[in-house]
Amino acid sequence: MTLRCAIVGSGNIGTDLMYKMLRSNMLELVALVGIDPESDGLARAKDSGIEAPHSGPQWVIDNAADIDMVFDATSAYVHMRHHADYASAGITAIDLTPAARGPKVIPPVNLYEHLDAPNINMVTCGGQATTPMVYAIRRVIESLPYAEMVSTVASRSAGPGTRQNIDEFTKTTSTALREIGGATKSKAIIILNPAEPPILMRNTVFAGLPEGSDHQAVLDSVHEMVDEVARYVPGYRLKNPPVVETGPFFTPGGEVPHRAVVLLEVEGAGDYLPTYAGNLDIMTAAAMRVGEAIATAKSKVPA
Amino acid sequence: MTNSSVDYRLIDSTLRDGSHAISHQYDEDDVIAIVRGLSTAGVQVIEIAHGDGLGGSSFNYGFSKVDEKELIARACQEAGDSTIACLLLPGVGLADDLKDVKELGVGMARIATHCTEADISEQHIQMAKKLDMEAIGFLMMAHMNSPEGLVEQALLMQSYGADAIYIADSAGAMTTEDVQRRVSALVKALDIPLGVHAHNNLAMAVSNSIAAYQEGAANLDGTSAGLGAGAGNCPTEILAAVSNKYGIETGVDALKLMDVAEEVVRPIMPRQQVIDRAGLILGYAGVYGSFLLHSQKAAERYDVPQAEILMELGRRQVVGGQEDMIIDVALELARKHAEANE
Which residues, including other chains, have CB under 8 Å from residue B235's CB and lie 6 or more apart? Predict the structure, then answer.
């Protein structure tokens, strides 16, 4: 069945998501909702023939009868204020902020575990890029005492929401590396790089490998997972082959003899911002994947 | 908050920036000896943290031997009349870390961002102020932004409530004229004091610091024996000695600082702070100083020349914190060298 959707937040992420949703035959975009009538995103929505109110989240609540699903691309604070309203109005919320109210979903790891949840959290762009790698490593070794990710995004692709909530980004991402990736301890780091021309989004995963880990299995599992993610984020790829380096390394999860290093790059599809903004793309592509999976699941269940 | 009887306030960062040069292996005894020495010499502010700031202990930057918060607690106990400061990079450390160190007795927080990204510091500067700490906005890699650009960024930090602004020549890449133009523009534009943090990759650290003072900087950074990232920082004891020669009142005892450098710091240095080829290239190519030891390790691991790694990082315009790109570049160079040899 087709689900009627609204996107709240007309910034970089909301606008990029709009273009992806306009191509979907399972998710029907009802409106792109903002708060600034002058915003570029709302102007583009109108150009595309989409309703573009600027009355914020309240518009969604007021029109709840015509909306099945809301994609929240505002900020963590705004989502925390409104998530309960969406739930009581019977609208499924796909949360693209790091508010982390509902279960976190990383499509290639746990897409089918939470399809009936009233609120699904998409973690962060860096979390979408790196949690699959942590999980891929964890699944072929006995334990993963510590994992770490470093995300570098082009300054131009980081909007005000990201900049004002940078701690929420690192905290939510780090939590996902443990809860979904399977690491015992974790750390997340984000860096903004202003180079011109803008750099493509870069993500690096470090994973502490305990004694006796099968290094070839780790490398093979990483390659398999890259292919899996690239199926819904075509610009997702390894910048260099993954390597295992020799330590010892004294991680917060204990001493390990080796570490795996995975160097990733994400080229965006260029739907809204140019291709350097892979951070937008991986987030919105993952959210679309979740939305469409929910639509598919609903069409299988007789009403 | 600046002592009015001195011409500039000296902030010593041996226990923070110096941490890079010893791969973050400080222990309690080192901290006690250094803080006592600096405090006795009259240093007003002593900075301590992982080299990459609070929360910097990681694969990417190197793990601390001893939990930094234990070391900070120890430093606070030994501080005497000195204020203990911490540095924090938003994106690496958390505003919550400031709460923890405030409880330990830390009085100053320096919130560091790349010189074009000041707006990620709002949360953290406001948290420091809420905790009643002195908050300093710290703009890194200042050679990568123009005087006008730095003014714009510094004004943002001032608007968030910063008590002072610093520009850091993190790559040790600035000439004296580069420093003068930036400092004079900032001093003119800001309502709050300015500071300069210099590195010695081009052998300019002391002269650039003095030039900064002459243009109106009210805070200067140093580290004992120059211990620090790259070819090292502005050596605190030399800065104090040169300041005396100029008749600039620092409030610190230059001879006692020489004792700390000679008797406490030099004995724990794994290598003397010299401007060798790699150090010079950092300044020449404008690469973040803390990449020095990491690039050396990667060069050995992948059998590629360290100088090539550093030049390529400069070409890519990487910024502070992107140590992971050292591995990336080393792997690419190794591949290119292998292809060329086929």
Answer: B200, B205, B206, B222, B223, B224, B225, B226, B261, B273
As a whole number of angstroms, the distance between CA B250 and CA A15 comes to 55
**The total number of structural domains that make up chain B:** 2
Query: What CATH number should be reported for the domain holding residue B142?
Result: 3.20.20.70
Bridge partners of B184, per DSSP, are: none
Give the class (CATH, top level) of A125-276: alpha beta
**In contact, A12 and A280? CB cutoff 8 Å:** yes
Indicate the pTM of the whole model.
0.95
- Whether the Cβ atoms of residue B173 and residue B283 lie closer than 8 Å to each other: yes
Each of the 342 residues of chain B gets a pLDDT tens digit; together they read 445 689 999 999 999 999 999 999 999 999 999 999 999 999 999 999 999 999 999 999 999 999 999 999 999 999 999 999 999 999 999 999 999 999 999 999 999 999 999 999 999 999 999 999 999 999 999 999 999 999 999 999 999 999 999 999 999 999 999 999 999 999 999 999 999 999 999 999 999 999 999 999 999 999 999 999 899 999 999 999 999 999 999 999 999 999 999 999 999 999 889 999 999 999 999 999 899 999 999 999 999 999 999 999 999 999 999 999 999 999 999 999 999 887
Q: How far is B119 from chain A (nearest CA, A)?
A: 7
- Among candidates A113, A120, A110, A178, which has minimal Cα distance to A149? A178
- Identify the CA nearest to B221 among candidates B246, B250, B201, B244: B250
Strand-pair category, A201-209 with A146-154: antiparallel
Nearest neighbour of A189 by CB, restricted to B91, B301, B335:
B91
Domain contains B233: yes
- What is the ipTM score, two decimals? 0.95
Tell me which residue in B57, B120, B331 faces A192 most closely, judged by beta carbons: B120
What 3-state DSSP class applies to B164?
A: strand
For testing the chain B interface, which of A187, A191, A200, A261 should be mutated: the one with the most B CBs within 10 Å?
A191
Interface membership of A148 toward B (CB under 8 Å): yes
Residue A52, SS3 per DSSP: coil
Which residues of A does the annotation mark as catalytic?
125
What is the domain range of residue B320? Answer: 290-341
Q: Which CATH superfamily is domain A3-123+283-300 in?
A: NAD(P)-binding Rossmann-like Domain (3.40.50.720)
**In-domain check, residue B44:** yes
Domain-wise residue ranges, chain A:
3-123+283-300, 125-276
Contacts of B55 in chain A (CB under 8 A): 187
Q: Is the pLDDT score of A15 beyond 50?
A: yes
